[in-house]
Amino acid sequence: MRQRSQDTGDVLLADLHIHSRYSRACSRAITIPKLAAWAKVKGLRLLGTGDFTHPAWMQELKDTCEERDGLLWHTPRRTVDTPVGPLAVPSPGRPFPFLLSVEVSNI
Questions:
Q1: Total domain count for the chain?
Q2: pLDDT tens digits for 49-95?
Q3: Is residue 104 part of a domain?
Q4: Is residue 58 assigned to a domain?
Q5: Assigned domain for 57 exists
Q6: pLDDT digit string (tens) for 18-61?
Q7: Which parts of 5-101 fold into alpha helices (H)?
Q8: Residue 46, domain extent
């Protein structure tokens, strides 16, 4: 999603349609720290949580994020382990925001 602020002309780059590792056909390696790290690498400034109604995913959100200002904030470390090796996280220590989101499906 690309949203332009009418006041300042700033652009908010966000991905609000993501899935957790509990969704069908998604990587079982997905974690909040990895999502935040890759979002920072890609220049995103907001992510949806995806699948927040799944009990285990909601518990991970509670364990890894802090609720503030209507958003969930994850504070990343310097690196995150990935299948291809450690990923250096841009702006480590600076919290990254998540917005609770879920997809409704009738399959």
A1: 1
A2: 999 999 999 999 999 999 999 899 998 778 888 777 888 888 878 89
A3: yes
A4: no
A5: no
A6: 999 998 888 888 899 989 988 988 999 999 999 999 999 999 99
A7: 32-42, 55-64
A8: 10-50+87-107
Q: Which two tokens stand for residue 62?
A: 């509670």
> Which of 57, 58, 15 minimizes the C-alpha distance to 38?
15
Torsion of CA 39, 54, 66, 86, to 10 degrees: -40
Query: Which three-class secondary structure state does DSSP give residue 88?
Result: strand
pLDDT value of position 5: 52
Whole-angstrom distance, CA of residue 60 vs CA of residue 32: 8
CB of 59 within 8 A of CB of 49? no
Looking at the predicted structure, is the pLDDT value of residue 106 above 90? no
Total residue length of the chain: 107
Task: Give the list of residues 6+ apart from residue 25 with CB closer than 8 angstroms, or none.
Answer: none
With a CB cutoff of 8 Å and minimum separation 6, the contacts of 106 are none
Distance CA 65, CA 2 (A): 24
> Is 42 inside a domain boundary?
yes
